[in-house]
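Exercise 7.
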Amino acid sequence: MLVAAAVCPCPPLLVPEVAAGAAPELDVARAACTDALGVLAAARPDRLVVVGPADGTGPEVYGQGTRGSFRGFGVELDVRLGPDRCAARERTGRELPYGFAVGAWLLGRTGWADAPVEGVGVGEALPADRCAALGRDVAARAGRIALLVLGDASACRTLKAPGYLDERAAPFDAEVGRALGTADVTALAALDAALARELKVSGRAPWQVLAGAAEDAALAGTLLYEDAPYGVGYVVATWS
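Solution. The predicted structure, written as tokens, is:
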């Protein structure tokens, strides 16, 4: 049963060591993410499932204790998914994708120790119906389930954005912010996957997994943060 969810962006720039001199520019976003994880902890889940963007179609499963790092950004910072002391260590040798590494960093930053953690990665090619089915499967697990859902909105909000300026980006992001802030599962399920891909949205599939998981949960949404620093849409919300 799904009891709570937190939605957070997952750009590596959220990590101060990666952002370096620009780190203060995302202080408000970091604080909102901390508050969102506090809502998850308050729900007292039996398990936390981290859902985020991954390469390929997915789903890709990352066990608790899977390693990640930000060395690709020139920063000697390593992370693990979930609390170390009860980790069932991932032995495949693969590392967390950067989005999941950011999620692991957020959990470590807030000292998450409230429940075991696992990761489920979904690719941008995963259709909406399969995302919803995956979400239903996660919510149907025994016990109290919480979700940390990672992903960014469009990367086309300004001329200097990674995807350049696209006039469709702001309306798309506004609808995403409204849907996440009001726990509108119908609107999230209806997001246009092709448009999301054109706008370089990494959160579409994870958000649609959330929509499937929350179909019968009767959760209320709260929008904690919405902005587009660097021309990329970031949204933080909680469902509880």
